[in-house]
Amino acid sequence: MAHELYTRTNQKIFFAGLSLESWRKAEESASMNSQGMIQAEREACLFHLYGALLGLCHEIAGYYRSPGADAPMVEAFLTRSVLEAAPSPELAELLELSEQPSTWLGQLLAAYKQLFQPPRAPAKAKTDPRQPLIEAVSVEDEVPPLSRVELEAWRQNLKGLALRFRESLTEW
User: Fold this and answer.
1) Residue 23 within a domain
2) How many domains is the chain partitioned into structurally?
3) Residues of the chain whose pLDDT is less than 70?
4) Which of 20, 42, 68, 112 has its CA 20 to 30 A from that of 28?
């Protein structure tokens, strides 16, 4: 493998695609451990998408010879202070996308961060002993797990962004 910065980004995007393919096969499987396989592939895909984003940040910072270009976390690149110290339109776009929780990048970063949170029991309201024992439960508060289609869309968005950025980063 070449030792160019873009190779790591490409590799991680490819690995995310492999995880998505394994996830699809696990969904089609009727095996007893298919739910575990789906969860494992969901997490692997998120891990590789985050790695691809980090690789893209390394590409950008390496092109501009920015200080801290070898930072081990995406969040080290996506701050206002980093952008002010070494301005680049590519990092500015990534920062803008990451600051908005409704964008695919904001959702990707939030989902990746969620991987490292301990499991939490749902909040249970204090009960009044005078209330009946049967209670209504709301299932709307539960966040559904990320879908394969959604993660594939994030992968395609990241891939498109990398290709577009590389066109502008090419020296003529």
Assistant:
1) yes
2) 1
3) 1-2, 124-129, 131-143, 171-172
4) 112
The rounded distance, in Å, linking the Cα atoms of 106 and 90 is 16
Total Cβ atoms within 10 A of residue 132: 7
Range of 164's domain? 5-117+146-169
CB environment 149-165: b (16+ within 10 A), e (fewer): eebbebbebbbebbeeb
Question: What radius of gyration, in Å, describes the C-alpha atoms of the chain?
Answer: 20
160 occurs within a structural domain: yes
What is the torsion angle, in degrees rounded to the nearest 10, for the CA atoms of residue 20, residue 24, residue 27 and residue 32? Answer: -70
Instruction: Give a yes or no: residue 128 inside a domain.
Output: no
Residue corresponding to tokens 């289609």:
149
Query: Within 13 Å, how many C-alpha atoms sit on residue 19's CB side?
Result: 24
d(CA 109, CA 92) in angstroms, rounded, equals 16
Rounded-to-integer distance, Cα 107 and Cα 166, Å: 23
- For residue 159, give the 3-state DSSP assignment: helix
Q: pLDDT by residue (tens digit) across 22-50?
A: 999 999 988 899 999 999 999 999 999 99
Residue 106 contacts by C-beta under 8 Å, 6 or more apart in sequence?
Answer: 97, 98, 99, 100
pTM: predicted TM-score of the whole model, two decimal places: 0.85
Residue 13: CA count within 13 A, CB half-sphere: 19
Q: What is the dihedral of CA 142, 146, 149, 155, to 10 degrees?
A: 150
